Amino acid sequence: MPLAGAHGGPHGGGAAASRRKILLKVVIVGDSGVGKSSLLDQYVNSKFNNHYKATIGADFLSKEIVIDDRRVTLQIWDTAGQERFQSLGVAFYRGADCCVLVYDVNNARSFENLASWRNEFLVQASPPGDPHRFPFVVFGNKIDVHESKRQVSEKRAVAWCQEQALAGGAAGVPATPGATGTTAASTHNSSMPLFLTSAKEGIQLEEAFKTIARMAFEKEQGEVELSFPDPIKIDGESGGGLHGADGSCAC
Fold first, then answer.
1. Residue 27 counted as domain residue
2. pTM higher than 0.90, yes or no?
3. pLDDT tier for residue 154 given thresholds of 50, 70 and 90
4. Which of 27, 189, 236, 250 is a good FRET partner for 1, with 20 to 30 A between their CA atoms?
């Protein structure tokens, strides 16, 4: 997503750059029923409802946060998990700066489908640059349910995140573990960050979306730098440029 309200262009420095308004688009995908809408409502509005209706198409909410002294607006898109709506993905995935893959820790099938969701997102979004470097974050949701019902262990989820990163070189950042093993994020630098979350109790959401914002911002900054390469010097500084040693034109 573009930087909104930027002052002085991408190379503007100092206070103007720090005051620049930054809009980052985040897309949440995963099977129907894993809690995507609940996660979004809890994070943005601090609300939880046990009776959400299935999302049709997509919807989004925005939240303004401060990351490393920068004011950032996250535009978070909640997409339909039902197969009949997946063809609409291209309209909502384009321009995303980060993608969140969500599964239900109590539903093994939703976890097994993560690879399909990741691949579908990359096909539909067609992100610029190397698609394997696009930032993904994984949420294992509904950890508030009793552990006896859990079908996907944290160890299995961490292993999958590492495999995906090694296979495709996916972007990842170091993540800070939570207070206990059941809420810890993956701490492997080469892995997709993994957060075990609860939309019902709000577990790990603040930490998770801060990580998402940093990853999305780094991606956005990288694209801006690629769009504005270093200028060509023509005055003979730093090694001649377009002029010969005697000042005459070298062309």
1. yes
2. no
3. very high
4. 189
